[in-house]
Amino acid sequence: MQKKIGVDPFTGGTHRMTSDEFFYKNKDKFDCIFIDALHHYNQVKKDINNSLKYINDGGIVLIHDCLPQNIEAQSVPRTTIDWNGDVWKAFVEIRTNSNLNTYTCFADHGIGVILKVGVILKGKNENPLNLNIKDYKKLKFLDYYKNHYEMMNIIEYEDLIKII
Predict the structure, then answer these.
(1) CB–CB of 22/15 below 8 Å?
(2) Strand-pair category, 55-64 with 30-35
(3) What is the pLDDT of residues 2-55, one digit of tens each?
């Protein structure tokens, strides 16, 4: 059975509520969760953590807008039409988790990919990010600009298809 659920408090989707409300009420597990939400570090971090609780083993979590092109595109609050917010900071933080394989596909403003290591996906994080940072929200765009290939573990679409 195919089941698709979209969550948005204002437009689109099948559930008119915030992601926090949805996950609080949710009892289902999913094969794929796509996060394209508020674009603020704190909310994206919550959405990622909630998604990991409800993803089936062997499932995939995708996060939109992980590769801002310039400082304006990642500023919070929003200052430009093309906007990623500081999604990248939440993704950098999750990349340090040794139980998750994480990549950023170089497509459509960057699609973060999280594969949970478990029963189906054996092993450990193949390319962990080792950072000694206490507060990822305080990362600066200059840090990202100088180190984004390593921080985001960027791969091409063709390579992502081989992995998943």
Answers:
(1) yes
(2) parallel
(3) 788 999 999 888 999 999 999 999 999 999 999 997 899 999 999 999 999 999
